Amino acid sequence: MPPTQFLMLKSLLEIIDTGEFEDNGSLCIEEALTHQDDLLVRLRLKHPDGGTEHRTILCHQPRSHFLQAAEYFDDLSVCDDHVLLWPHSQLQAALYFNGRPDNAHALLGALVETHHRTLNDWFPITRFMNNSLFSPNVELLASGSGLLAEGPFGIIDAYASVLETFNIRHSSPPRRPPSWWDGTRWQPETEKLYALIMGSSYVVGPNFTENTA
Fold first, then answer.
1. pLDDT tens figures, 71-86
2. Which end of the chain has the least Cβ crowding within 10 Å, N or C?
3. How far apart are the C-alpha atoms of 154 and 128, rounded to whole Å?
4. How many angstroms separate the Cα of 103 from the Cα of each of 106, 108, 113, 166, 168?
5. Same domain, 36 and 67
6. Is residue 179 part of a domain?
């Protein structure tokens, strides 16, 4: 049996997974609406022959999303191994530093470079790093101690490696399992999650279904 992610949105993926569509077709997010606990994403699909149709993707109980309206793209995928899943699938950690760097600006630059290289620009630099790091005079780093970042261990470990390169000591409290807000309270994450990627837009959730509209 094919993996679950290949069964989701099967008919839509079969249309766009062709050379003709890549050359002459396109997709565009027209709108996104919430429906109870779900998210409806309405796409306009332009076929290589110039015909158009609309498809609606139902994203069941999404954990996170970023949707860029009116962006045209020619690729759509459902992934079960992607950095977008890290906040929802990996153990979560905090990272504290202790020590004054010889060059705080160089350290900050190295952290930013590692962030982009590890996460491929899917998250802004302040998504996990402490906002206070980015003051004009980098006072937090210059102070010699504080909270550097919080997030999934994949990126926290990458930041820690940068600190070690600059001979800065660091520590972390015990890691905790990921959780999600169900609209009423925080719940432990127990479901298998997938990332629906549409150009620069995405939705993370346990299931996606489609229909014509």
1. 899 889 999 999 999 9
2. N
3. 11
4. 5, 9, 16, 9, 11
5. yes
6. no
